Amino acid sequence: MKKTVRVRFAPSPTGPLHIGGVRTALYNYLFAKKNKGQFILRIEDTDQKRLVEGAEEYIISSLAWAGITFDEGVHVGGKYSPYKQSERSEIYKKYIHQLLNAGHAYYAFDTPEELDQVRNEFQLKKETFQYDAKTRMFLRNSLSLSKEEVKELIEKNTPYVVRVRIPEDEEIVVNDLIRGEVRVSSSLLDDKVLFKSDGLPTYHLANVVDDYLMEITHVIRGEEWLPSAPLHVLLYKFLDCAEKMPAFAHLPLILKPEGNGKLSKRDGDKHGFPVFPKEWKDPVTKEISSGYKESGYFPEAFVNMLALLGWNSGTEQEIFKMEELIELFSIERINKSGAKFDPEKSKWFNQQYLRKKDIKELTILLMDLFKKKNIVVTFEKAEKICSLYRERVNFISEIEEQSRFLFTRPIHLDKNIIQKKCKSNTTELLEKLINHIFGFDNWQSGFLHESINAWLVSNELSAGQVMLPLRLALVGELKGPEVFDILELLGKDESLARIKNGIEFIRKSIQ
Ligand code: GLU
């Protein structure tokens, strides 16, 4: 029988989740759903010194916003609980003893100062120090000291760590579903600390023990963890559970827009695009980093953009709903090389979703923005504004910004434009226009369009002579949608009042 797929996202709550982390969670989610498996959220908080207040909640709420849900985890429970490593310390103790008893791990009593000194000595010889088979017998540990000495040190409560005993010159094979077979000599690895003096394991031990106990079948994680994979393979072997070892898939990096190096928060700050799913306020510095959510991205667009940063469907299609992604996703189609992040393309994705969104849904969102700006508007009018602008913008906030002139009469008209576009007869032409439209009962843009155009023709006037000054009077500048739509949205009274004001302003400016 085929094993049920079980994958996990295992962040350390050391800060806000970068979009690279969201992508890792997304790929795990897609893989789990595609294979009718389970997806688990495990919080890896064994490095208590690096914990950041609010980071765990941030991770949970960001993934929820993106529509990435879990079957088990720290926030939803499950039969493998607890899902937070700091609550599992007793479990790890059993495994560290198993490794110690089998001779795969040992106690090390070297103080940080002693290790610094050794490092310096190596540096003087222009060599790099590594705690391993070559050096461990010259250091203070349970392999180099006698049994009695070790016993005494432990009885005296001397601080110690437990290190893994890496064998010398053994070939370790990591089978990676994306990169193929990766072979490494164990001599390149150091005797990593597995257990710290604070009684908690390090990432490596806790990660492997939990993947094993939680019956994880596939470890899908960022490329930065590939160097740790040989140690993890060894630990499975040392813990006698090599046959339970999950398959590994190390995802390519997300690269800076210029394509060199990993995308970092600083790139976002520099170029003004978010690198975090939601806004993040640093609890210490109080510095605020922008988020996709607050920048007006739809979660669907954000997820679609992330899905294609490192994976492709093999077709030209670029717009995928979550269900389609689940259906099409496969680890084989994940690229080996890094994915260059393109902030403009992210906006494009949002634009595509904005265009397709149900107009009523869009209107509700726009109404919210108007409300925040204390703008009172009917649903009908907001809907009209949405349909006029949706093809011209990437974000709903732009609709709010660009339609602001509809709610505040312009005080000044752009003088440069007046100089360039208005003639001595402009005010007279606008007055004539008022006379023509003054009696209209119908103020629909279609009707206005027809009758004003007919009036222009019969008076042998060009659009430039009348329509540009008209737009200027209505908007204050030469921006905005079709003039007839603007007239309709403003309504007859407001339109006439703005044209009259405009006439006065133009008259004064060209005197
Ligand atoms: N705690 C690690 C992280 O913060 C997990 C890496 C892994 O998935 O094994 O990314």
Task: Report on this structure.
- The chain is mostly helical.
- The chain folds into five domains: 6-74 and 207-254, HUPs (Rossmann fold); 90-177 and 180-194, Glutamyl-tRNA Synthetase, Domain 3 (Glutamyl-tRNA Synthetase, domain 3); 265-355, Glutamyl-tRNA Synthetase, domain 2 (Orthogonal Bundle); 357-405, Helicase, Ruva Protein, domain 3; 415-510, Orthogonal Bundle (Arc Repressor Mutant, subunit A).
- The chain is 44% helix and 10% strand.
- The protein is built from 20 helices and 14 strands.
- It has a three-stranded parallel beta sheet.
- Helix 1 (19-34) links the parallel strand 1 (6-9) and strand 2 (38-41).
- Helix 16 (426-437) packs across helix 18 (463-475).
- The longest helix is centred in the last third of the chain and has 19 residues, at 492-510.
- The radius of gyration is 33 Å and the shape is elongated.
- The termini are far apart.
- The mean pLDDT is 96.
Summary, kept brief:
The radius of gyration is 33 Å and the shape is elongated.
CATH homologous group name of the largest domain: HUPs
Number of domains as seen in the coordinates: 5
Total DSSP helices: 20
What's the total count of β strands? 14
What fraction strand?
Answer: 5-15%
Low-confidence stretches: none
Please give the share of residues in helix: 40-55%
CATH classification class of the largest domain: Alpha Beta
From the alpha carbons, calculate the radius of gyration and give it in angstroms. 33 Å
- CATH topology of the largest domain, by name, is Rossmann fold
Please state the average pLDDT score: 96
Question: Which structural class is indicated by helix and strand composition?
Answer: mainly alpha
Question: Major sheet: order of its strands?
Answer: 1-2-3
Largest sheet: 3 strands, parallel
Sum up the overall morphology in one term. elongated
Give the N-to-C terminal Cα separation: 90 Å
Bound molecules: glutamic acid
What is the CATH architecture assignment of the largest domain? 3-Layer(aba) Sandwich
